[in-house]
Amino acid sequence: MMPEHSASGYIRSIEYIDRYYGEFNPWMLRYVAALHGIACPDFSEGFTYCDLGCGSGMSTLMLAAANPAAQFFGVDFNPEHIRHGEQTRQVAGIDNCVLLERTFGEIYADALPDMDIIVLHGVYSWVSDETKAELRDILRWKLKPGGIALITYNALPGWAPLAPLRDFMREYALGSSVDILDVAREGIKYLHFLAETDAPYFRNNTAARQMLDLLGRHDIRYIAHEFFTKHWRPLYFREAAEDLIKAGLNFCGQFPLYLNYGEICLPTASQSITTTAPNRIAFETHKDFVRNTMFRWDIFVKATPQFAPDSPENHRDIRFGLLKSIGEIQLEMQIPGGRKIGLNGEIYSRILDFFNLNCGATLGETFASLTNYKPEEVVSAVQYMVMLDAVRPFAKHVKTQIPSVAGLSQANRTFADIQLTADGSVVLAAPVFGAGILMGREDADELLGKTHGKQEHTKVFERAAALGL
Ligand SMILES: C[S@@+](CC[C@H](N)C(=O)[O-])C[C@H]1O[C@@H](n2cnc3c(N)ncnc32)[C@H](O)[C@@H]1O
After folding, report:
1. Do 148 and 241 fall into the same domain?
2. What's the total number of domains in the chain?
3. Model confidence at 4, in pLDDT bands (50, 70, 90)?
4. 248 and 269 in one domain?
5. Which atom of ligand 1 is nearest to the CA of 58?
6. Residues 285-302: what's their mean pLDDT?
7. How do residues 45-101 score in pLDDT, each as one tens digit?
8. Which residues constitute the domain of residue 221?
9. Is 17 contained in some domain?
10. What does the pLDDT read at residue 120?
């Protein structure tokens, strides 16, 4: 007996894990487009945003709560995902988000507005070529000129030695039960059996052994969705980029941000490709070989660059701020597989001091205040500071007069209720930041009134009020 798959071959019988992805942050996507020289779209009065394959919608709903002037849409064909997401939406009182139970091919019937941003995470390399073509059609017809797309996929060469793990599991376990979770458990058990009996595939393939250890720690729903869908094909960057070019999109960057800089993310011996690669597609393709890339978070835009990457003009309206206190901010980082970077100059401390006092100020305001530095130098320094998560793009200016605190918004109380993690941390929607922020257990407990004997006007309440929580 076979578990239920949809006509497209994707599993529809069980829900996927529902979580918030910081990479979906519209203000960060807009910043990456600006770094690529794209004229920065103005989001201050709102924007339209669509999540294709939104699952139960945690990311979409979080961003809707954090951006009340924008309109959000989530599309997914799994009825349980949409029912679950809709329930959260209603309890949270979020009215700027529509979750639609549709296949990708069906969305045109809904007369959705054209989108400023379209995200598709965990979808593109897990669907058939026909579904990929439907997704590209949506990008071609529904993404506005100048619009931004975030597209993630399993990549090569990283998956090349590991793809048989998926094939063996399916070969052995598919058909063993009608319950796809049991099938997934059986598949993992079989791989462990092969590894423990010293099967040469594992003996000769250290990466596969490491991956098996990792798989054992994953939620079984992830294993089912990741490996038991009918279509699953990791892609070379070149194939994905060339497909998307046909939909009118141009590659503009990648998450994490440090991957956009060969001189930082490549070992010294391979850095020459940064200058010798004839174009960005060739550079990315070579970089994936050098870094053995397994997964890509790619950002594309429906536009061509109009500015030089560090152009102050293009960055003038972008707001930045700090999410941590100055004492907690690290200005050095060992880039995985690359260099260690440390930001030592005075310019970095000046910028931190400025945003500490003017959280959410624009770069134009920063240029006017840091007159000892050329605007280009400020743009470049901020770029490194964002790479290190020291400084973050913000949606709004933080008010200096903090209003008295009434407590968490209805949306955040709902998010806190449903996200109880083992370590007690939660992600809450921060309208001043324009995205979700992670709150550690102590702060979350205090905000939720679980900690006794504390007064409202503590630092954590002040910070929550400043961020609009
Ligand atoms: C791996 S999950 C990723 C979910 C979510 N984006 C995330 O990253 O947490 C892929 C999602 O795409 C949806 N999906 C797959 N094929 C689809 C199709 N043809 N039409 C609509 N949704 C589809 C699935 O139901 C599933 O929720």
Report:
1. yes
2. 4
3. low
4. yes
5. 9
6. 97
7. 999 999 999 999 999 999 999 999 999 999 999 999 999 999 999 999 999 999 999
8. 163-227
9. no
10. 97
Residue among 12, 16, 106, 166 whose CB has most ligand 1 atoms within 8 A, to mutate = 16
Q: Report whether 469 contacts 447 (CB < 8 A).
A: yes
Q: What is the mean pLDDT of the chain?
A: 92
440-463: pLDDT as tens digits: 888 888 888 776 555 545 678 888
Whether ligand 1 lies within 6 angstroms of the CB of 122 is answered as: yes
Does residue 399 fall inside a structural domain? no
Closest residue by Cα to atom 19, ligand 1, is 103
Mark whether 251 and 128 lie in a shared domain. yes
